[in-house]
Structure formats: structure tokens, C-alpha cells
Amino acid sequence: MAESTNISEVLLGIAEHDPNALEGLFTARQDNLEASGLDPKSYCLANLAALIAMDAAPASYLFQVGFALDAGVTPEEILGLLVALNATVGNVRIVAAAAEVAAALEIDLEIAAEEG
User: Fold this and answer.
1) Are 64 and 48 in contact (CB under 8 A)?
2) pTM of this prediction?
3) Tens digit of pLDDT for each residue in 53-104?
4) 88 and 112 share a domain?
5) Residue 14: its pLDDT value, please?
6) 88 contact partners, CB below 8 Å, separation of at least 6
7) How many other C-beta atoms can be found within 10 angstroms of the C-beta atom of residue 70?
8) How far is CA 30 from CA 21, 43, 52, 89, 113, in A?
9) 27 and 80 assigned to the same domain
10) Which pLDDT value is given to residue 5?
């Protein structure tokens, strides 16, 4: 029972973005970036493309968009990625991803629609 309690605590920590619970994940990410041989921007764009192609969970976008912005990827480049992937993954995935990317970029689409 103690083992499942520990697992529950770790999963809860990850879900709540607890830095202690996430430390191992971030270390693994850094190791993977180095092993890939890609520059940080390309690595982040590749990860975002994978999320879009997989129709990933909304929380995944928060992390990956944050990592991408930290690596110097611009919101315009993320939009360009959505456009580039449309022909490959289709409109349905791009529309779903656009809403998640907007949320991760802290863009309120309802306000944007009213202003536009």
C-alpha cells in the first residue's frame, strides 16, 4: 500500500506542477535534448509537432509551449508550425491544437473574437 501511496503522491505532484515532482522529468528532457543533437528551438518545435499530431492533452501544451518560449521560439513560429502541419495532420487536429496553444500563450480567444 505504501508504494501505491507514493505513486499517487508523485502523480499528484506532476499534475499540480510541483517542482520537486517534475525535477526528474526536466533532467530527462535535458538529457534527451542533448542526445538529439538538435538546437533547443528545433527540439521544442519537434515536440510541439508531436503533440499536435498525437492530439495530446491540454496540460501537455502548457509545458511544451512554455519550453518553446524559453528556448526563443516566437508565437509567430508556433503559428507557422500549425500552418505547416495542416497538410499532414489535418484541420481537425490543427483547430484543436490552436485552442490549446492559445491557452498556453495566455491568449483569450473569446476576447480576440470580440476585438476582431
Assistant:
1) yes
2) 0.75
3) 999 988 889 889 999 999 999 999 999 999 999 999 999 999 999 999 999 9
4) yes
5) 75
6) 53
7) 10
8) 16, 11, 21, 27, 38
9) no
10) 62
Residue 79: CA count within 13 A, CB half-sphere: 6
- Same domain? 44 vs 100: yes
Name the domain count of the chain: 2
3-state secondary structure 34-96: HHHCCCHHHHHHHHHHHHHHHCCCHHHHHHHHHHHHHCCCCHHHHHHHHHHHHHHHCHHHHHH
Region of residue 108 (left: phi > 0; alpha: psi -120 to 50; beta: else): beta
- What average pLDDT is seen over the chain? 87
- Tell me the residue range of the domain where 87 lies: 38-116
28 neighbors 14 (Cβ within 8 angstroms): no
Q: 56: left (phi > 0), else alpha (psi -120 to 50), else beta?
A: beta
> 82 or 32: whose pLDDT is higher?
82
